[in-house]
Amino acid sequence: MFFNGWEIIGRTLLVGVLAYVGLIIILRASGKRTLSKMNAFDLIVTIALGSTLATILLNNNVALAEGITAFVVLVAMQYIIAWLSVRSTVVSEMIKSQPELLYYNGKFYYSTMKKSRILEVEILQAARSSGIDSLEKVRAVLLETDGNISVLKKSDTGTEQSTLRNIQK
User: Fold this and answer.
1) Residue 150 and residue 118: Cα distance in Å, rounded?
2) SS3 label, residue 138
């Protein structure tokens, strides 16, 4: 129960190092987008890669080649979906959420906050984290597609390219 022999320890060490190196090579070849923090699909791929690595390490019935193949399949599927989402609005809308307005020009959007499970205190905390001491200085607070809360300050100039152009008010 506590020790099953040196052969299993040796296999775990060897397969662990090789699987880890294989995963790094696959991820480097696939580009930065593979593990970016953009949407739920990326999170699923990240968790699946970790689960696959754990299975390769701990399950003697899974060969290294099978594990590396699973890595390639997961990364290839993520690459294909990301490629399609850039070229197809239908695919993009299926896998990506839209940013949501939580606060705009002095008004909290409580229905959006409730749907997104965001409390007013979290918006205040996000403003403080952005170095803002008063909501009077805030134009908008958004829940981004990756789950982060963005705080946009009011502009001093009247000539601004709004970053809110893809947000429904």
Assistant:
1) 13
2) strand
DSSP 131: T
Q: Name which CATH class applies to 100-153.
A: alpha beta
104-137 burial, b if ≥16 CB within 10 A, otherwise e?
A: beeebbeebbeeeebeeebbeebbeeeebeeeee
3-state secondary structure of 151: strand
Q: Show the CA angle centred on residue 165, arms to residues 142 and 99, nearest 5°.
A: 30
The predicted model scores a pTM of: 0.64
Q: Is 62 helix (H, G, I), strand (E, B) or coil?
A: coil
Residue 151 · residue 132 · CB < 8 Å: yes
Question: Over the stretch 56-104, which tens digit does the pLDDT of each residue have?
Answer: 888 989 889 999 999 999 988 888 888 898 899 888 877 777 889 999 9
